[in-house]
């Protein structure tokens, strides 16, 4: 129930406008940052290099000046402006790497980016900048250890040593966050929990890598050290956040990580069906004990914080209180319905623990059933599934102990999965429409027959997801290349829209505390399934919006307009409600802005979830919506059906529109009380000067780099090397060719018979590649030197390189080109480098078979 204090209508209108203006400004900043990255990555051929550099530098300078002015006035808009300037810094560094072809060492870009935004982080102490800084350090170290290839983005390390380094980095970030906790403005403890989650995740990754390598027979070299490196930080984090700094969320995540380590260490030794069953039961038992202990930690935290007498009476420190319409202050508490269990109102991290345990347990039990029983027909799978599901529901409802209730939930989900397998086989044999009622009946029975949030969420998600899948055309199900891509996209779009509307309606209905436990899991499942469908639209078969039939366009248009509609409903239903003209005006304005993310349906789903999460004060919904929005923008970036320039224009116009909306909402003549806005309290010059100094540092460092690279290109010695290109895309820098050189491969072969030379390179970490031109002017391998610069003959030249991951790297590994010109540069056979006197090499241009410039 939402409770607000009575007050004058004019005051409520002002608070509504302030909250809405803040939200519109933040969204405008995020879209503007994405638009800038897209525009830089487009490498627009109509603009010269100097024009692109000047444009991005000018945008960065304007953002810094805006942040300085707002900081001087004490305006909270200084933080979003500085955050946008930090994003523009990354775009500027990427543009420099794009122009001067220095993108081979991607780790240097992220490390330099992190160093340059550090002054802004020091003076602002904002959560966004702190999280961005930590992410940049992680990316820099990851790419440095695993190399700069595109595959480094998708794998979590070739050996457990990579995981150990990243584990150590995040542990240091966590320690630093705790030491600086008094000065960081982080009321939600996002910095602490993000750093702790990253540390725990890499601890589990180290254990998994060690288990796999130990399974391959390398016990002494991998398994035992990996076990030590994984368990020590987990135990330390658990001890620290149960005794030193009480935080039940971090302690619960540590419990989940510890169970994950145990599971990985044991799963590689399972060789029989009995072993699979035993491991499943062990993980279930550990999970039950961990969930009970997590609830105890939560109750202790509630009592220590003085939030209430029992966990059920209040969501305590990890459930955001319901906010007043403007989001200015807590307005009440969430009351638990009479007669419900404490576990039904557990915070998000207890639910995450349960879901994290249920998934592997159900998977292992499914493997055990598949091995032990011969379920080769739809009837067999349905019969076994119904029996398990009914038994699990009965056990969950009749048992008084939580452990048996959780066991019943596991059996219920396992039975539902077997029913789903039977439904799939029926659909394969006789079509989906005969099997769909069975799926709906099984899902409804599982949902209605249990009181556990995790079981209801799994039942609703499985039913909705498989139902959407089965109702698609058979060509979509069994052959991606058969049928029309536009028909598939249209089908996905309408299913996405229906689920999104369903999720929003059910979420609003579940705002009442008496209905929350029953209906909120269905809302979560509908919104999550809608998010999955939205990502599929762009990932599987991206189709331009104009190429879709009118039905598909209508579905995507409704999804894009829905965030504004949900926001209008929130404003109309809240007490006190917003003025009617404000409801209609803001809803219509967001509807127009929706055209900016029309091609990115995942962003529409994210905004709906963000509004609903803000409305209900649900922090997990808000955090996951922000994450989905970032993923949606990344997927939209790689959509080949729309050019990067067009995407940047759409997002940029939406950002300008939302910024204008924010200004309109905050305009003095729009204040309901008719009074002029009092001047904001001015702050000391420390913050503005710090922001300005950070901007000068960024622009100065970039300009110095530009002059350095120009000097190398002007006075460097030309060197032509044979190469072999391929063609991926960089997230920050656009389309590029990943280059490999014939001379580098020749050196690899030569080093096979030279173990002393390889050891010397490994010890020094750097060396010199000696080259000599042949009769055609192509430079060939002459020798290799590890250590100081060698003495060269008149016809020789040396390139300085670093020795990383068992290979030499002198840069010049990418060639960036404007979007859509890949065929032109696919004819490249040689690369022309410019080598400075100190051995630094820059890639100047690509040459064709006749060594003519492309």
Write the layout of secondary structure elements.
Elements: H1 9-42, H2 49-72, H3 78-99, H4 106-124, H5 127-146, H6 160-179, H7 190-215, H8 219-244, H9 248-267, H10 273-305, H11 348-372, H12 378-398, H13 402-430, H14 432-448, H15 453-470, H16 474-478, H17 485-509, H18 513-539, H19 550-573, H20 580-593, H21 601-616, H22 619-637, H23 644-666, H24 686-715, E1 717-726, E2 729-730, E3 734-741, H25 742-752, H26 755-764, E4 766-773, E5 779-786, E6 797-804, E7 807-809, E8 814-816, H27 822-825, E9 830-835, E10 841-847
Antiparallel strand pairs: 1-3, 1-9, 2-3, 3-8, 4-5, 4-6, 6-7, 9-10
Structure explained in plain terms:
The model is unreliable at 1-7, 148-158, 215-220, 307-344 and 669-682 (pLDDT under 50). The protein is globular, with a radius of gyration of 29 Å. Helices cover 66% and strands 7% of the residues. Among the domains are: 8-123 and 643-715, no CATH class; 375-471; 473-642, no CATH class; 717-847, no CATH class. It contains 27 helices and 10 strands. The strands form 2 sheets. Strands 1, 2, 3, 8, 9 and 10 form a 6-stranded antiparallel sheet that branches. The protein has a 4-stranded antiparallel sheet with strand order 5-4-6-7. By secondary structure, the protein is an alpha+beta fold. The longest helix has 34 residues, at 9-42.
